[in-house]
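FYI - complex with heme C, inputs then prediction.
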Amino acid sequence: MPIVGAALLITVVTGVALTSTVGRGGTSSGDPVDGKRLFTASGCSGCHTFRAASSTGTQGPDLDAASPTSDKVMRQLEHPGGLMPSYATRLSKDEKHDLAAFVGGPGTSGNAVAAPFRPDSKRLADCRDGNFHCLEQAFGNLTFNEGPKVALERLQKMAATTPAVQSDCHQIAHRMGSAALAHFKDEVSPAFVAGTTFCFSGYYHGIIERAFLGQPIEKIGPLAQKLCSDKAISGDPFLTYQCIHGIGHGVMIYTGYDMPVSLKTCDGLQTNFDQVSCQGGVFMENFNSSYGVTSKYLRDDDPIYPCNAVAERHKLQCYGLITANILRLTGYDQEKTVAACRKAEPDWVSMCFQSFGRDASGIAGTSASKALASCRLAGDHEGDCLYAVSRDIVSFDAGAERAGRFCKLVPATHRERCNVGLGSVLVSLEPTPKRLKAACRRISGRYARSCEKGAAMTTPQT
Ligand code: HEC
């Protein structure tokens, strides 16, 4: 699975980017969230084992093993055979579609897709043909035997020269995280401390995934909280963010892309920062699966979904990442993406354009004129877009000089907003109020007040 790389840069304080997903299948129009509720309410769970519904019935076939398509589920509900009761008239058409979306479809919802790491004798030299499984295992072995520091350096070097490694580095790094936990005898904090964010933090995600394996779902929340509050991690804001955000990714992977359960796990975390960082990981994993799995919580015919279906408290994070989904669905057509943002729920249109600005910045790279042109497409939301570009630049550079120059190029009416965005990220880079003030003055000039205003904002960031 290729990495879109800088093209889709999702930046937080630290700059975390998305990986691309492969083609999607399954076009069931039902809503799997409702389907899940119906599965229990209609008595399916009494007869079927289905992990995504935590059901253990045995009268009918195990639906994880049978893994029926959504069409098959529809047929079964209309014309059941054998001992299964008919739902032809007991459920409405919509309800049947909801069930089909939940039970059927591509991917493996309900099944953890990450396997624990098992070392063997494979070495990098055995993978000259660039076979992904070979590379994944060999880098895992290297991590297990020599520790993550050496192995991650090797990965980074090889990615620079070997296209097969570069395009799969995120998933390889996932496996290395899992191997590192084995190396450190399941102790999370030394594994974390030895890591790097190379290739979009795949290594951190891998540790978290592996740390969850074998745990019952209701234990994941408390376990997650405990993992990240270890002193070696909680003392460092950067590692804390990686850890909590990684929980969002990890819990999605662990539950087989069960978004509702994953969000509930995030809600159980202690602080607002933790909840929000975790939700960001969940939505990112939903839109761009690390494993090439197609989440059930995506719809070809509704680019805004699931943001228009999730609880109000989850919308900020969802809309903050939604254009990753829209761009993918529209084949990276920015005009179509802008049009889709306009059709978002009215209260969230502005956030959709901020998401667009950040992705546009990633796509534009260092070209200010490209970013400006993208934001012009946003029309009356140009300000939202430019605000997000400026934030993205500061995050990406871990410095505000280039963003300061960018803000001088934007239309005069948006310069204030641009500098507010700049300040809102700059605050995380300047350790003291005094230095922050000086930096705002130096970089934003006559817009220093806007920069300081941004720095004082407390809105949680995606
Ligand atoms: C009383 C027990 C019972 C209930 C309740 C029940 N099923 Fe079934 N189900 C069965 C049995 C038995 C079969 C195997 C049917 C056959 O022999 O063709 C089956 C088969 C299926 C299959 C086909 C699996 C395959 O082989 O691919 C699906 C899908 C399915 N059921 C879904 C559901 C859903 C969704 C519900 C709830 C709306 C439900 N079932 C409720 C007993 C039940």
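The longest strand covers residues 9-10. The CA atoms of residues 55 and 305 lie 27 Å apart.
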